[in-house]
Amino acid sequence: MSKIKITQIKSVIDRTERQKKTVAALGLKKINHSVEVEATAAIIGMVRKVNHLVAVENI
């Protein structure tokens, strides 16, 4: 599996509770925080749900 780098670029303030929990489940804590994770189907689906809040790079 390939790895991707996910960076939070926008705040979760004034977002739905579901979006807040999705961002937290990805391991992101605050703006400009990045995590490197395996690009599984579950992770890709989570990123698509909050793609307006995060930036993704292939590693």
From TrEMBL:
GO terms for cellular component: cytosolic large ribosomal subunit. Residues 4-54 form the Large ribosomal subunit protein uL30-like ferredoxin-like fold domain. GO terms for biological process: translation. Transmembrane segments: none annotated. Keywords: Ribonucleoprotein, Ribosomal protein. InterPro entries: Ribo_uL30_ferredoxin-like_sf, Ribosomal_uL30_bac-type, Ribosomal_uL30_CS, Ribosomal_uL30_ferredoxin-like. This is Large ribosomal subunit protein uL30. It comes from Mucilaginibacter pedocola.
